[in-house]
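Hi C.,

You asked whether I'd gotten around to modeling the 382-residue construct. I have! Everything is below, sequence then structure, no commentary in between.
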Amino acid sequence: MYFIVLSLTVALAGSLISARTLCGYNNISLWSKILVFFLLLVAWTMPAILGVIRSKGWVDGELYNILSLCGYFLFGFAFLLFAVLLLRDILWALVYGAAKLSAHASDSWSPMNVGALTKANIITFAGVILVAFYALYAGTKTPAIREIEIVSPKIDREIKILQVNDMHIDRTKPVKWFADMVEQINLQQPDLIVMPGDIIDDRMDAIPAHLDELKKLKSPHGIYFSPGNHEFYNGLFMIQWGLRNMGFVWLSENGQNVDGLPLYIAGIPDGPQRYTKKEYPRLLEGAADDSYKILLSHNPSKAGEYLGYGFDLQLSAHTHGGQIFPFHIPVKMINNYLAGLYELPEGKLYISRGAGYWGPPMRLLAPSDMTLIRLKPQEEKQ
């Protein structure tokens, strides 16, 4: 109930502020202003509207998929419009205020000048439309392969690890999109594949065609999976059963040595459970002393604690790199980290921005990625 009230409050506030900025000071009819507010409110509440349509079964199949894509795009557009309008007006007020103090201000470009505001609104609205469609392209294109290199004296040969996370596979996303991801992964010929969560974001029985593509992943030393929060939301037991039947290694509060490689990989789930420090050492039970120890942890926020128990590298996900700017700021505040490779006192943390998207099918200043991690031996000094 708290979440519903909060969401509705945000939707109302965002709609009112955007509508008032766009047409509150113009000489247009009251009914036109109400219509603008209503359209913005519909866009802001699209996730809730789509949720009701899906739960009631009013629309399903390909029609629902199209409706979902369009609805979430409108939601993303409404958010971008609100953010840009707010940022624009803050900067405009600051610049105009500074100009007034220096006696260089002109009433013709005052924030309270209706003519100037109208022109600014038209330019802003058109600009946000262009940005929104670019973000749609960036969010739905096949993610690029990003490469990073990590050197360690525990590694005796180059080992290629392909990290893919945050696919958010659900029935509304096209099967071909994931097929292209699988093809890109297999082209890298990784020694092993790791998945630190949020791969599945739907019931397993609703995405059989998507899972058929996921089965095509190839890795001579296995595919290692640790659940994220969205696996918990969509039936963890069935997801675990299904992925194990597909040959994936399920890592949840456990780990194992990788046959034929000097690696130990463990996983800790990101879900409703709470962990205490005394439970962390269980993740390293059975690890070879001289192995390079990797932890798959969907949520990166406790990286310092986890790495402190003896892991060399933590591979994480969850943040999407902010997905849509300016979400970068609150995402980093909540999770302590955003994306990329971090050198912590306890070890290394790498966070991928993820291959897919959640919510709006958009990405802005947070490009999707799948990561090829090259573990290399440390060269001896001459």
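If it helps when you're writing up: Residues 2-139 form one domain.

Thanks,
B.
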